[in-house]
Fold:
Amino acid sequence: MTDGAEAPSPRGAAVGRRIGIGLMYGLWKPRVLGAWRVPASGPVILAVNHSHGIDGPMLMGTAPRPVHFLIKKEAFVGPLDPFLRGIGQLKVDRQAADRKAITDALGVLAAGGVLGIFPEGTRGEGDFASLRAGLAYFAVRSGAPVVPVAVLGGTDRPSRLSPALPRLRARIDVVFGDAFEAGDGSGRRTRKALDEATVRIQERLTAHLAQARRLTGR
Structure:
């Protein structure tokens, strides 16, 4: 491992989930729909749209299982560094091929854990319009099913403290979709196979987001 850090801890992620539950339900009003669609055991990838700054913590507090998120390395500063590591989160360098992050993420899945990914890479419109190939790589390489997740609400009236946060006590809808296989069943990991998987994933995520908006009226 390039920086000597330990592998992400399942126990730490479980602690993070408890913290997320307390914070998210204490500060906002989550409404969770379809959490039963997340497989109760085995490796799973949660693919989450990214429209405001609490999407990661919100999923940590509302998902039915502890989640290890791939989080940009810029967030691991000061006291947040040991805290995020302690709750099983994964630091990733988005500007380079981060071998440690890849190894850690595949390790989470190999151990039957839940990996959380923002496939758009950065916070923006949250509409899955621009996907990176990382999600397809992890899904095809591990064989783990992908569960699309839409986090909706709170962007119309941001917090006074930060435009990246919804106002306190705002209702946030978290909608889990049906799990699906990203690969074509052949087990191929070629560039063409990954490109095809990326298209397949984008279609499923976009369709889920549209359905979630219809369901919630967002």
